[in-house]
Design brief:
6 strands; 29% helix
């Protein structure tokens, strides 16, 4: 071999070796990632399912201790070995089901790389180590203030999105209804679950109260507290405003499906119904019966009953 070529080959080998060492050696560029760096991602995308007594496989991701403990199947992270860590395989989709269950969208490449760097670095805790806590709903708005989607979004994320997402714990969102965004929540494509200005006509309110069945959240009890139900009710009463404060319009003509106790003067619990000559009464519903009402919304957000039937 010619001396010049040997020299070039040795130089190339040295460069490649240096690159590999930098890329794969734990602690070189991984040392900057600590558990504190992961907390925002875990809180935003993981703890809505992986917290509390119903955490899948007992895997709790609302604190460092739970993450290191792993699930009933064993550890989910192995220090220095991202490729051998089940957490990474789930985030990338090489193990199924891919996580988070609310995806797509799943975690970005940058977010997954953050977890990989933390594992490479040996799973270091936060430098100023405050354990992550399960996120709490923001405090209810002060009396007299405007309620917006920001006042209920975290509550939906904590108690509803685990099922009402593209790929939730029960598979596709029940009846296609998603609570992953403001636009999805107020959508009336198949029927209206939220009627701006009229909480009693809003199926979502009747579900969390237990007036319509099954009561929600489906993993209850515990169900939502009176304060949490009140927060959703007040938000809808004030017009189901967006996070920016824009009031939603009433989806005139949208389909409605509600349940409750039939009261006197054609009321469903505390909700007055609009009865017309074409309203259909199945099996002669009587006051006190538990019934289902199907109808449409008029321009004022009132329910025009098309069919009323007892349900047992």
């Amino acid at each position: 071999m010619k001396p010049g070529k040997l020299k070039r080959d040795l130089a190339l080998f040295s460069a490649v070796s240096a690159f590999v060492a930098f890329t794969w050696t734990p602690g070189v560029h991984a040392q900057e990632a600590t558990y504190a760096d992961l907390e925002p991602v875990l809180r935003a995308r993981c703890v809505m399912c992986h917290s509390g007594p119903g955490a899948p496989l007992g895997l709790h991701l609302d604190g460092l201790e739970g993450l290191l403990k792993g699930s009933r199947n064993g550890p989910v992270v192995k220090a220095g070995d991202p490729a051998g860590s089940e957490l990474i395989r789930r985030l990338k989709g090489s193990s199924q089901p891919r996580m988070p269950m609310t995806g797509p969208p799943f975690l970005s490449d940058e977010e997954i790389a953050l977890f990989e760097r933390w594992i490479y670095a040996g799973l270091p805790p936060a430098l100023a180590a405050a354990e992550a806590k399960t996120p709490e709903s923001p405090a209810p708005p002060e009396p007299g203030t405007v309620a917006t989607y920001a006042d209920v979004a975290t509550l939906f994320a904590l108690r509803c999105v685990k099922c009402h997402a593209e790929n939730g714990l029960m598979g596709p969102a029940p009846e296609g209804y998603r609570l992953t965004s403001y636009e999805a929540a107020i959508s009336a494509i198949d029927r209206a679950r939220i009627v701006p200005g009229n909480p009693a006509a809003s199926e979502i309110v009747r579900r969390v109260r237990g007036q319509s069945l099954p009561r929600m959240p489906f993993d209850g009890p515990p169900f939502l507290s009176d304060e949490e139900i009140g927060r959703i009710t007040e938000w809808i009463k004030q017009g189901a405003r967006s996070a920016e404060g824009t009031q939603a319009s009433v989806p005139t003509g949208a389909r409605i499906r509600l349940q409750g106790r039939l009261a006197s003067q054609w009321q469903l619990d505390d909700l007055p119904l609009v009865i017309t000559d074409s309203t259909r009464f199945d099996k002669s519903p009587r006051t006190g019966d538990f019934v289902e009402v199907r109808g449409i919304l008029d321009g004022a957000g009132a329910v025009v009953a098309e069919r009323i039937r007892p349900r047992h």
